[in-house]
Design brief:
Elements (H helix, E strand, L loop, with lengths): L9 H7 L15 E6 L5 E7 L3 H7 L9 E7 L2 H9 L5 E4 L3 H7 L5 E7 L6 E5 L14 E4 L4 H12 L8 E4 L2 H9 L5 E4 L3 H8 L2 E6 L7 E6 L1 H5 L1 H23 L1 H12 L3 H10 L5 E3 L3 H16 L36
Parallel strand pairs: 2-3, 2-4, 7-8, 7-9
Antiparallel strand pairs: 1-3, 4-11, 5-11, 5-12, 6-9, 6-10
């Protein structure tokens, strides 16, 4: 679909296509050399996404006086970032809860080394404000747009199961966000399963309302994934530990400075400021740094098993085999409550 259609939104979707970041199971992407920060004899190669780790670390002042170098490479989605980790082109990078499942299923050389836990209000199934659909059970026989293999795909499956339905009880339209937006806006589908910032955008600009969210259905986890070779390098492993501590502090800064971060995020990505702030309040600012513990492994295993049952991954496997817990010390459990901005956000 063209970004230039009769609807007003696709012009805003062009930058948002970058947000197939942590969620999409399959998406084309380009990577390229970015900035280099810091000084020293050790260089950490970091895979990043637009408005991601580099932007938040810089905004929070965590790249000042860096005692090692960070060379940034930018990717438009999680899967190719993890391909670069597998190829040792990148030492570490941030993704959502789904790309590690697909990478592990493909037997990639990756290790999940850190996690964040946020609210899942941004993971939503939306319908038009005037829709007669009032509950997930009402989706039976209806059409739902969703990106294949995305976190939203899992959320749709799990939400249907909670309502006593299966994925076969709905008409699934496998569409990436730009195409899904057009279909949703034109009434070609009855519902749309999405994630933030698309959720925030749809609610503000696509005449949408939330049918259900991922709260209590999806795990709300995001991950830092590293190359085993980098972890086996003593000096680089120390640098990774420091890098993770800086990200921890930067996430704390985001929660305390939502408006300041929303301005930076909007500038970096092309998001409207109001949409960016909504997304910070709804999900992005709520994240807390947590341990990659047994509960996290179990919830990811559930996602992996679900996608295997749907035939979206080639094999069953143990997610635990793709986890390194050396950086867990002192962190709260993965089930620790996310932060909250209170009612009205």
């Amino acid at each position: 679909m063209s970004a230039r259609t009769a609807i007003a939104l696709p012009a805003l979707l062009l930058p948002l296509v970058l947000f197939l970041t942590g969620c999409s199971g399959s998406s084309s992407a380009n990577s390229g050399g970015g900035n280099t920060d810091g000084k020293g004899s050790v260089t950490l190669n970091v895979g990043d996404q637009k408005g991601g780790s580099e932007a938040v670390l810089r905004a929070a002042g965590e790249l000042d006086d860096l005692p090692y170098k960070i060379r940034w490479s930018t990717f438009t989605s999680g899967p190719p970032l993890l391909e670069a980790v597998n190829a040792k082109a990148v030492d570490i990078g941030a993704v959502g809860n789904t790309p590690p499942v697909f990478a592990a299923a493909a037997k990639s050389k990756i290790k999940v080394v850190a996690a964040t836990h946020g609210t899942s209000y941004g993971e939503a199934i939306v319908v038009k404000k005037g829709s007669e659909l009032r509950a997930v059970a009402d989706l039976k026989g209806k059409s739902v747009a969703v990106a294949q293999g995305s976190s939203a795909h899992y959320q749709l499956t799990a939400s249907l199961a909670k309502a006593g339905l299966s994925i076969d009880d709905v008409k699934v339209s496998l569409l990436q966000p730009a195409d899904a937006l057009a279909a949703f806006t034109r009434g070609k589908v009855d519902a749309w399963a999405i994630w933030d910032p698309y959720t925030s955008q749809a609610l503000r600009q696509a005449d949408a309302r939330v049918l259900t969210t991922g709260q209590g259905v999806v795990n709300g986890l995001g991950f830092q994934v590293a190359a085993p070779a980098a972890l086996d390098d003593g000096e680089k492993s120390k640098v990774i530990a420091d890098y993770l501590r800086r990200l921890h502090r930067a996430q704390d800064w985001v929660f305390k400075h939502p408006k300041e971060w929303a301005k930076v995020w909007a500038k970096e990505t092309g998001l409207p400021y109001e949409t960016a702030l909504d997304s910070v309040h709804r999900s992005h600012g709520t994240r807390v740094t947590v341990a990659v513990d047994e509960a996290a492994v179990a919830s990811e295993q559930k996602i992996a098993d679900t996608f295997a049952e749907l035939g979206l991954t080639p094999r069953r496997f143990s997610f635990r085999d793709f986890v390194d817990t050396r950086f867990n010390a002192g962190l709260p459990p993965s089930t620790a409550a996310p932060r909250s901005y209170g009612k009205g956000h």
